Amino acid sequence: MYGLSQDDLALQDTARAFTEELIPYEVEAEMNNGELPEGIVEKQKSRAIQLGLYATNISKELGGRGCSAIQQVLVQEQGGRVTNALGWVLGTPPLWFAEVATEDQLERWLRPTVRGEISECYAITEEFAGTDVAALEATARRDGDDYVLNGVKWHVTSYNEASYVFFQAVLTNGPNAGEHGLFIVDIPTPGLRVVRTPAYSHTFSHHHPIVAFEDVRVPASHLVGNEGDGMTFAYEWFRFERLMIAARCLGAADRLVEEMTAFAQSRIIDGLPLIKRQLVQGMLADSVTELFATRSMVYETARSIDAGDDRKVLHARCSMIKLYSSEMANRVADRAVQVFGGRGYMRENVAERFYRELRVERIWEGASEVQRVIVADQLDKRGLRALV
Ligand SMILES: Cc1cc2nc3c(=O)[nH]c(=O)nc-3n(C[C@H](O)[C@H](O)[C@H](O)COP(=O)(O)OP(=O)(O)OC[C@H]3O[C@@H](n4cnc5c(N)ncnc54)[C@H](O)[C@@H]3O)c2cc1C
User: Cα separation of 378 and 151, whole Å?
Assistant: First the structure.
């Protein structure tokens, strides 16, 4: 099915077998604030690297696996089947960085990241600047051979795990004053301070703290790309991340349909298995149909990336699949909770965990409303035939 090659199928099998090993740890993570006993995640990460499931998005020259887009999707889809972010050990280092990094930056940060020795996080969002990145208030002031960084960033995912953070700020002096710059800051660096670590709906070991940058001084060699770039060179990355979110949501929905079907087959009510009740059949049928539609869309989009289709059209398609897949997975999770009944409301149940965890997929990397705006704008500019 889907015309996958032998290599694609072998990679899919490897990823599937690997994530099956992660699933038994979910409840333990859920009951322990997302944490597993010391050394387990490190072992899982080493195994992901050894199996060729890590850095699938990075070229072989940089030490990655150099997989096609469809292969990357196949791996991330399997990662999405696991709750509590245990699938995040299938790391995808920042591909966009490879395109603008200096040789020194490649050696110090990107190559060790691709080897799985260190990892990154992003400090872009602020209290009053999320969707609207143009409203950022964080500043970067050039001072001799250094930049001095100030600002307070929200939702800095994985800050507690990362070795360096990408920080976006408005330049306050020099020829590009008023424009944005992106900087690498090692963790720790004097002036970095966790303001607080709020609790979120999901139970992950990766936290999303609010982080203050107070007169943080970095050498000019920590500027990524040029002054004025900000994250503008990261459009490629947005496309990539949206495709990967779509793939992971697909995996989540796949797991949910599998689990709720098994439950509906075994649960007897009034002498009949639940799967024979037509109202429950409706929920299962809608879920599996939407799963099939989403998989077709996501795989087709990955193929059009591999085929080198027009970038603007791909941008719109990645928005479509991020929108559709994340909303589909949320609908499936809602139905799964319903099919499981009271069990579906227990934290030890996969449906309950996904019901909370999948909600953010409709918000981060561009909320659903923003994806709709992108799709409608592209429809207006390029016409229906170009998009679908
Ligand atoms: C768990 C989590 C992890 C995150 N990790 C990171 C991270 O690592 N680094 C980082 O920098 N940021 C991170 N974020 C921030 C995330 O990218 C933002 O939350 C997201 O971009 C939305 O910004 P906002 O929360 O400020 O919402 P706002 O921009 O205030 O938008 C609120 C709502 O308004 C609606 N809306 C916004 N714009 C439009 C529009 N044009 N048309 C119609 N409706 C609109 C949408 O429904 C949106 O959800 C994370 C967020 C969460 C929840």
Answer: 34
pLDDT at 242 over 70: yes
CA of 50 to the centre of ligand 1 (A): 35
Name which residue sits closest to atom 11 of ligand 1, judged by CA.
124
* Contact yes or no for 81/255 (Cβ under 8 A): yes
pLDDT of residue 2: 87
Per-residue confidence band for 232, with pLDDT thresholds at 50, 70 and 90: confident
| Any atom of ligand 1 within 6 Å of the Cβ of 133 | no
> Is the bond leading into 188 cis (omega within 30 degrees of zero)?
yes
Nearest Cα to 179, choosing from 226, 132, 228? 228
* Mutate which of 125, 180, 241, 360 for ligand 1 pocket (most atoms within 8 A of beta carbon): 125
Phi, psi of 45 (to 5 degrees): -65, -45
Ligand 1 within 6 A of CB of 124:
yes
CA-nearest of 323, 306, 310 to 381 is 310
Q: Which of ligand 1's atoms lies nearest the C-alpha of 200?
A: 1
Please give the pLDDT value at position 364: 97
Q: What are the two backbone dihedrals, phi and then psi, of residue 116, each rounded to the nearest 5 degrees?
A: 85, 15
CB 215 within 8 A of CB 228: no
Query: Residue 186 belongs to what H/E stretch?
Result: strand 180-186
180-91-82-368 Cα dihedral, nearest 10 degrees: 20
Q: Which of 46-55, 138-147, 225-234, 342-351 comes out lowest in average pLDDT?
A: 225-234
Q: How far is the CA of 117 from the centre of ligand 1 (A)?
A: 30
Instruction: Give residue-wise pLDDT tens across range 78-100.
Output: 999 999 999 999 999 999 999 89
Q: Is 208 in the pocket of ligand 1 (CB under 6 A)?
A: yes
The amino acid at residue 370 is V
362 CB less than 6 Å from ligand 1? no
**Which pLDDT band holds residue 236 (cuts at 50, 70, 90)?**
confident
> What pLDDT does 131 receive?
94
pLDDT-derived band at 275 (thresholds 50, 70, 90) equals very high
Look at the pTM and tell me if it is higher than 0.90: yes
